[in-house]
Amino acid sequence: MTTVVLISRDYDMSHLAPAIRRAAPELRVLMYGDKGTADAEVAVCWNPPAGALADLPRLRLIHSMAAGVDNIISDPTLPDAPVCRVVDPGHAQGMSEFVTWGALHYLRQLDVVMANQPAETWYRPEQRKASDCRVGIMGLGEIGSRVAQDLRRIGFSVRGWARSARDLPGVEIFSGEGEFGAFLRDTEILVCLLPLTELTRGILNRQTLAMLPHGAKLIHVGRGEHLVAEDVMAALRTGQLSGAILDVFPQEPLPQGDALWRAPNVIITPHMASVASAETIGSQVAANVRQLLSDEPLYNVVDVSRGY
Ligand SMILES: NC(=O)c1ccc[n+]([C@@H]2O[C@H](COP(=O)([O-])OP(=O)(O)OC[C@H]3O[C@@H](n4cnc5c(N)ncnc54)[C@H](OP(=O)(O)O)[C@@H]3O)[C@@H](O)[C@H]2O)c1
Question: 42-74 pLDDT, tens per residue?
Fold first, then answer.
């Protein structure tokens, strides 16, 4: 019987065990530390303790329970086994809903209207056309490309930035570091949907924000470590950013008392933009274990050297 172990140092993954068992009753599913952990051939992870994977002598497959893998592959003792992630159209749909809400919130100036309410101020902002509002999406992967196309369908003027060029109907494409400045220069609402890698860590910094038009907005739904919190707060104070929706943070939960909670014109959301359901995670892990056991190609394999 193949053993699957669920491993995290800070997240309760126990709800995933029944979902994996439902999808693949033939598997033995354990929590890390249970008797039999050392037999595990498959590890399903979120933030595993450093060295935990290297301690599994029979490990053949490492599976993220999410789209991101940075918290797994950053372990210097990562064993030489394939790393897979969850890629779920429902994930992209959820993210698209969240980013669309944020973009419409700013387009229709709900931020201004809500700020006026405590003073009982009746002010009707001018209605802008979506086509006059330029949204820029950093990262055009499984999720970013879906978000870009949905925003385009609503009528926004959409541009996207990725490592490599591609064709995405109706979306203006910028690629590589060389085109980063041109991408930012006319972006009014910046959406971060990059993976966390050594090249993207801290990318939401003073230099990047300074390249946006004065008064731009930020919707950050990538990874917490993209954010240089001091720089984002400084940009909010000076008005370089006139609003930000922040969903992910270097430390989660965002600690009580953290200055970001009270930064001007910021909306803090608790890493809720899009969460894959336990059923989806369970069925994707089960499908990949079956591929592994029948020596068939795995789904959604990550390029560990590239970092995503
Ligand atoms: N907040 C939430 O609830 C939530 C939920 C789900 C996912 N996420 C996050 O959303 C992000 C995107 O996920 P995904 O599945 O769409 O990722 P993905 O499929 O791996 O796509 C990554 C995209 O980023 C681009 N990219 C990577 N490194 C780059 C660099 N150095 N410069 C420019 N572009 C770069 C890639 O370019 P190429 O296409 O040229 O390779 C690709 O378009 C991840 O950070 C994930 O953790 C957050």
Answer: 999 999 999 999 999 999 999 999 999 999 999
